[in-house]
Amino acid sequence: MKTVLIAGAGAAGLMAAKMLSSKGFSVVVLEAATVIGGRICTLYDPAFSQPLEAGAEFVHGKLPVTLQLLEEAGIEYEPVVRKMVSIVNGRWHQQDALMEGWDELMQRLQSVQQDITVAAFLEQYFSQEQYAALRKAVKRFAEGYDLADIHKASVLALREEWMNDEEEQYHLPGGYGQLIRYLEQQCIAQGCTIYTSHVVKNVEWKHNSVHVTCANGSRFSGNKLILTVSPGVLNTEEKELGHIHFSPAIPQYLQAMLQLGFGAVIKLQLLFREAFWLHKFNNAVFFLSNESIPTWWTQADHEYPLLTGWLGGPVVNNYTQQDEAQLLNDAVHSLAGIFNMTVDDVRGALLQTRIFNWCHEPFVRGAYSYATLNMQKAVQQLTTPLEHTVYFAGEAMYLGAHPGTVEAALVTGQQVAASITNS
Ligand SMILES: Cc1cc2nc3c(=O)[nH]c(=O)nc-3n(C[C@H](O)[C@H](O)[C@H](O)COP(=O)(O)OP(=O)(O)OC[C@H]3O[C@@H](n4cnc5c(N)ncnc54)[C@H](O)[C@@H]3O)c2cc1C
What we know:
single chain, 423 residues, alpha/beta, FAD/NAD(P)-binding domain, 7-stranded mixed beta sheet, 5-stranded parallel beta sheet, binds flavin-adenine dinucleotide
C-alpha cells in the first residue's frame, strides 16, 4: 500500500485525503495548527449565540463540488438575500449590480484580447474625468472582493470571474465548520490519520520517497507528499514559523509561488444589543461605503444583532499586529458614518467584538489568491508534480471561474488525488 503524506488539513488537504483513502492509499495528514480547517474557521464562541465565521462564510453560487459535498453530508444551506445598498457621503442608494456602471464596464471588458493589469485597463479605456466614479468602483471591488492589487491583477481573469458571478449565493446556518467535520469523519472512517500541532519543517525527497520532519521532532515517511499550505506560508523566510525547507531544493517551484497574487483581509464581527440597522433601508443585507471599513453585512437571521465588517486588499498592510484598538475605532467610526449615528451611540450599543486579521495567522499569512498576469504559467509549473513524488494543491492552484473559494480548494484536492491515483 502506498503512503501519501499531506501537509495541511484545510479543505484541499482533507478532500485529497478523503479521495485517496477511499482508493486504498494509506494517508497521514499533518496539520500545523491546533485545529483542522485552515481558512474554514467556524467558532462556537459562548459570547455569541450563533456560530461565528472567522474565515469562509458563503458558497458563491451553484458550485458543484461544494454543493455536492453539502448534499452528501446532509448539511443545510440557505440562499443569501443579496440586497445591497451603497452609502456615499451619508446618502443611501439601492445598488442592484456589483458596482455602478457595471454594464459599460462589461462591454469594454468583452473587447479585451490581450491580458493586461486592471490598472492598465482602467488607464487605457476609462481615463477620462467622466469615469472617475467607475474607476473608483472597479478599484474598490477588485481590492475589496478579490483582494487584488490592481497593478498586478489580470483583467482577463477578473473578467472571467465577474462574468460568472452568480446571483444565488448560500450560507450554512450551522457553520462552514460542519463541512470540515464531515470530511474529517470520512477520512478517519477510511483509515486516515490526522495529526494537529504538527508543523512540517523539513522535506527530504527523491523519486517515490519522502521523509518529513516536523517542528516537534516527529518524523514521517511516505511515497508521495501533497503540500496544501498557502502561498503566504510557502513564501516565508527560513526563520519564520511554518517555513518548509526542501532537500533537494525546489527553486523553480518556490519562484512560481511568488508569481501568484495572494491578498489580505481583516474580518470583524461586532455583536450589538439590538439590530439597529433593521428596517433602515428596505432590509438591506450588504452595506457598501467609502468608510475606512467599507463593507458590512448582516446575518440571514435578520434579528440576530451581528454586523460583519470586511477590509480587503493592499490597505490591510497598513494595519500591524498591535492595531486592534485602531481597527475597532475605525469600525465604530465607519458604522457611525453609514448609519448616521454618533460614535458614542455605536460604542454604547456594542456588546462583543472579534477581529480576525488573516495576515497574522502564522500558518496562513494572507487570505486568498487572485490571478496575476503570470498566474496560468505559475500554476502549470506548480501542478506538475516533482518526479511524481511532491505535489502542490490548495485554492491558489486553481484555474477555474471561482478562484479564492472553498470550491477552488476542494477542486484542487480532487485533482491532486486523481493525479496520484492515476500515476
Ligand atoms: C476571511 C476569509 C473569508 C473567506 N470567505 C470565503 C467565502 O465566503 N467563501 C469561500 O468559498 N471562500 C472564502 N474564503 C476562502 C476559503 O476560505 C479558502 O479558499 C479555502 O478555505 C482554502 O483552503 P485550502 O485547503 O486551500 O487552504 P487552508 O485552509 O489554508 O489549508 C492549509 C492548511 O495548512 C496548514 N499549514 C500551514 N503551514 C503548515 C506547515 N508548515 N505544516 C503543516 N500544516 C501547515 C494550515 O494551518 C492550514 O490548515 C475566505 C477566506 C478568508 C481568509
